[in-house]
Structure prediction request, 1252 residues.
Amino acid sequence: MEAARKDIQFLLNDRLIVIDFQEHPGLKPTTTVLNFLRTLPGFKGVKEGCAEGDCGACTVVVAEPDHGKLVYRTLDSCLVFLPQIHGKQLITVEHLSQGDQLHPVQQAMVDHNGSQCGYCTPGVVMSLFGLFKNTVNPDRDTIHDALTGNLCRCTGYRPIAGAAVSSCHGDTADKFSEREAETLRTLGEINRDKHMIELRGSSQLYLKPLTLADALECRKSFPEAVLVSGSTDVALRQTKKHEHLPEIIDLGGIEELTSLAESESEFYIGSGVTLEKLRLFSEKRLPPFYKMLSVFGSLQIRNLATLGGNAASASPIGDTLPLLFAYRASVELISVSGTRRIGIGEFITGYRSTALSTHELIAGFILPKPSAGTLISCYKVSKRKNLDISTVSACFRLERKDGIIDDVILAYGGMAASTARAFKTESFLKGKPWSQPRVEEAMQVLAGEFTPLSDARANAAYRKAVACNLLLKFFTETENSEL
Amino acid sequence: MTTGSLKHDSAISHVTGRSVYVNDMEVSSVQLTGRVVYSSSAHAVIQSVDYAEALRLPGVAAILCAADIPGLNQMGPVIHDEPCLAENEVTFIGQAILLIAAEDEAVAIRAESLIRITYKELPAVLTLRQAIDRGDLISPERYISRGDADRALSAAPHVLSGELETGAQEHWYLETQSALAVPGEGQEMLVYASSQNPAETQAIVAEVLGIPKNQVDVEVKRMGGAFGGKETQANHVAAWAALLAHATHRPVKIHLFRDDDQKITGKRHRFLSGYSIGFDNEGRILAYKVELNSDAGSSTDLSRAILERAMFHAENAYFIPDIHITGRAFKTNLPSNTAFRGFGGPQGMAVIENALDRVARFLGKDAALIRKLNFYGIDENNETPYGKIVDQNRLQVIFERLWESSMYETRRTEADAFNRSNRYKKRGLAMTPVKFGISFTTAFLNQAGALVNIYKDGTVQVNHGGTEMGQGLYAKMQGVAAAELGISPDRIRVAATSTSKVPNTSATAASSGSDLNGMAVKNAIEVLKARLKKVALDEFQKRGFENLAACDIEFSDNKVMARMIPDAVIPFGQLVNAAYLAQVSLSATGFYKTPGIHFDRETGKGNPFYYYAFGMAVSEVETDVLTGEYRLIRTDILHDVGDSLNEEIDIGQIEGAFIQGVGWVTTEEIKWDTQGRLLTHSPDTYKIPTINELPEVFNVNLLHDFPNQGTIRKSKAVGEPPFMLAFSVWLAIKDSISATDNHATEPDFSLPATAEVVLMSIEKVKSKK
Prediction:
């Protein structure tokens, strides 16, 4: 780990920024991009609306090289630590227009009366800019998905959706495309250096290894360090709880952890694969993942959050976990001494606890391909359809032989201290026909199987009723399906 | 561009990120960050406060407690029952106890962590039921009544009675409460506020500092949303910032964190209302008796006026011969609830709308037709319970047009067919009206001022007492000024609202911003035009046009001209310059008061409103019977704004208010725990609508060709009334629940109708079978 890099570099719009944290006492490695921008003169466009990634007023776009091109992603800057944008271009609302010439998405917002109080507007504009760079003639779902993470309390959203329709119609050329080659060159130079980044400042040690080997060394040397990948969860410990994070290992720059592969018998999903990348990958291949991830957080969140992070946080309401259970996923764990694979059920050991040892990292997830005729379906019930935490989530797997249930997995989120299978109900169902009377009996068993909590999201009685009804819903959706 | 289609005056600065909000302001390199330390107990005696260690922390400039307040320790806007900083007792979680000024946010947070406050707990009242049982009223019970409701109820062929809970609502303005106080020479204090009521902010700052009002200037450039949440409670943060600025002699800015804002500030009042409704076989309402009980929170704030407006809207759009309305506001140990779009109107209306829905179900009739049957009449049955005649009634015309355009009948048939063939999905449909009274019901508040300055280059600066919170008031005022002066809008700038330009103004509230300020601006311009006309006559006379009178002079197309005389034309700028050289004043104030507003609180009679705004909506939902989740399939709205001052802005207000209303009636659920701690204190748990809550089909139209009489350019107020159109969604959801047993059972229902409320109601309907 010698010859580590001691600073970070990125483009702020077209300007190269170099930050050596020891020379900037006002900044620490975990200073968020939002707070960094707001300390600069002339960058007050970005707004803090909630400091937890729920409102999108702080949305920025980050461009990064990918296969020789720039890829533009919207992020909530309140959730991003500065080193996470090392080697990337940070684009802010101030940079979209050229003199008096508004960017097409800005002009469309003006034309459609897309702003009222204006406070959410810079974030909305950046989401529209991301949409503009990534799509041509987006459909309603795509537009809504791109804007789900931007709360507006004034307009009722229709004019914003209208601005999206009229600005994202085809020609994605803009001032950024004109400068693409130059931007790629500058970023390429920064990214050529694969030395680990070691940052110290404000009694904080922030390690950003850029290879898996370095990451495993870091993990061994600093077993107490907090691991971040997308930081969408960890950032809240700082922004909301004002917690000091003394040691951090940032896994977000390790290419080896981002593989996404399909073989004849299984899928392999690297722990560093972002949930948005996984969502797009899963549309045809893993439809339940597509369905679940389409109501997971917002695009800004999914562009940061990773499957490894969601699984490792082992939250009882982690939305990917019931799916991993239903897919009989294995978790590949890696350390300097080697790798091991354990089932997801073993991996989750309790409320926010896992079998990950202090030397290990999650390398990835192996999902065996279900045999033909296997039914897997997932559900998320929340107070609000999108950008909400599950009240109850579930993923069910059903295999039948000659009309009789051969195997079944009923995995629930939100019903216990961790993701939990309804084992009693599963064994009740095994060997029985998949019929409404049997399902209704199974619902009775299920009703006695969990004792969920009442909290801000819902009361226990509702959680129970929904958990049971979801089984019926699964039945009604599958009763006519072929084996 | 015509003056009626002006874009929001800040549109370009909004989209480029150049609009400046209070939190974006840095006025000095020695500016400090303020932080509020608040109570963690709902009701307690403060036993000890120890901040000695925090004060020693480097970077801490000051820590203030109640004893450090130089003036009055009060910030109650109407009644002085709200201390600025708690002294011996705290009465809600979130009540300010100490103020910190520090070099930056990190230091302030660190300092707060070093402060120790101990409490001796007292019993706390945390639910409305508890408060009603205790009978701790914030002010005496109020009544509005006509006829004999009790007798009419006992004589009515049918009577239904019940109770309805309507929940609180968090404003969730995107910009949390903010203020920047800048001390000047001597006693001077300049406050950049995010306040709907700069004059009141000025008054409260002056009072807490113990200085005359003329020493305090309050400026409001814009707010990042307000919705009533910054009508009184923006005063708080301004007073706190001013106290710290006064103590440190340095500028101090406070910008609340989201969670702190949600915990500290008041919300829409939750209500628990009881009612009895008497009706005949046709569904004609004969009698209505309603008790509106509101949760005022820990102090009075605007609770009386809000309760009063709930009472004024208890019958909504319906003529009810015998009616008795009781209003009570109760004290609880929660933050003082406050103004929120609709200002009690929604809470009053919800009860009658739900009751009418019951009547229809009871009689097996379509609720829309029951509503129509009971609308206020044009020539008869047109007097409200408080004695005002509903004139310029648009209910019938809106109903007819919307019934057609929404294809209500066809869709009702289609929904019934859908429900017959789907067991686990049910559709619901509802059409609901709004009749909303426009004016401050506190009569003297219906006044406004303006100051219009014309500069030598012929450009104009408009100042008025209204504040811009996104509603497009400035653009409307720019449009009014341009139309009245006959010059292009780009020659007019509407300046930031300032107490030193226009004094003693009322809050920008009650949807009255354009009505009041538009008239005041017009008034100032009329003064200026009269002066300019004289100058023009002189100029024309010099050119040989004799015998012209002031009434011949017209202002249009950036020119001033004599009617019918093509050559008698002076460019506006040239005339202005001539006026200056002729030593004519180019600055004038304007004033307006709404005529004829009065109300007697003792008798419950009077004329509390200048006019009514009307609107209707039809909404259709599809509910998942197994989870209680629903989606909004379609909404059609027809709304009355008179002759619109700006159609695009008005449509924006209607859509925005409607979606905000949809939030209130669906997902925006506020919960406290048994200690009075707010559980839903961030967007993580408090769910306002996202873009996905837009109706899949959304047809919003203005009622054209019905000008309003006696208002600025025949327009109507628009800010609040459309909020209540969301009842169409709420009752469509109820209709879908009721469809699960073919409308045989009256479902349990409350507001918000979360998926949880819906599923539990469906399960109950099921179990009754």
In short: Residues 513-542 of chain B form the longest helix (30 residues). Chain B has a mean pLDDT of 97. The two ends of chain B are 62 Å apart (CA to CA). The domain at 271-441+601-768 of chain B is CATH 3.30.365.10 (Aldehyde Oxidoreductase; domain 4).
